[in-house]
Amino acid sequence: AQGLNAGTWEDLTAYFVTLPANRIELWAWLESDRLLNPVFREFYSERDVVHEERRRSTEATPLGKYDEAFNALFWEAAPYKWPVVGWASDLAAISKADADAYFSVYYAANNLTGVLVGDFRSAEVRPLIERYFGRVPRGRSDPPEVVTFDPRQIGEKRYNAEAETSPTVRVWYHSVPFVHKDRTVADLLSDILSGRTGRLYKGLVQGRELANEVQASVSLKKYAGVFEVESVVKDGKDPAAVEAALYEELERLSSQPVPDAELQKVKNQAKANAFRRLSSPFYIALQLMYYDGLGDWKYINSYSEEVDRVTAADIQRVARAHFAKENRTVGTFLRKAGAPAEADDPELAALPEPARPMARQQLREIAAETDPARLREAVTQMTEAQAQVPPEMKPVLALLLKRAQERLAALEGGQK
Fold it and tell me: Is the pTM of this model over 0.70?
């Protein structure tokens, strides 16, 4: 097998693996036994590993702690205000008994969904699934229902902070949950705004020349959703002017119907991307698991039809509902005194503009790394990948490799 891994989101945890079709029975035996007879080896040392992951991904990154605080401000009452990895105090307090109790409720047969995608015959596989997974008992009690939801926001919230980052404006709006008639409308609304041909890039980066980067996205969760807009302010420009320009673009969507040609272009792109996501059994399985966790696995089949049904009037209606002032939380992140600007890093500034956000984040993680063993592994992986990356990514990889080697040398030389 290969790719044995897991992922945790707000609404679900998924375990996945890719293996030959003639190993399905072996997988069914192993996976069902893991659920039937779990053994939490070295629980407390593994808890420390998770704590270290939190430190690296949240506490040691320029915006990690601020992202966490902003998310907690946005959600009024819903459980989504809690970070997936947990607060530091949660990790310090959880015990083996707590983990056992949690597992017995959420990893019981009545709370599990299995997904198999690939080259097999269902009539042959079904008896194996029933034989092995039929051993896993129903839990003694069902998982508790979520009963606390965010009330309708009644006033704008604002979050101002200084961090080691380029000046950034972030605006979040409350959106719909995943199982909602407007889910695909919200998805297309974000597509109209996003990308190099989207309205935000054309308006703020190319037109007004106020921003270096701008993006919009929508995250529809099981019980609620969030529509996110974020812009990195161009050096010398006023974040307040960027924020005002963002609202102008959003207001245009609320007040004017999207032209037919523009809407059709976005629809075509959305359906083409959905088709590309069917390119491998692995990505099909991930989508089925994720959509089922949010409440509707059939979305993988109905998405294109839902896209076709969206009208310009739907876009305008949802934009009006979403982009009200009282429905938003605004974050302004200014550069902390002494923090380097992107212009102060000529090697980063020399990279192609589309590659800079990813490279910037990777460079921050390299600079925050304190474990020489992890850096040595990263250097090895990047060295091996040099011959395989596309030509346009070679300068990015070269810079990351150089900085990782420099950071490794500093750590091994006793510097911090």
Answer: yes
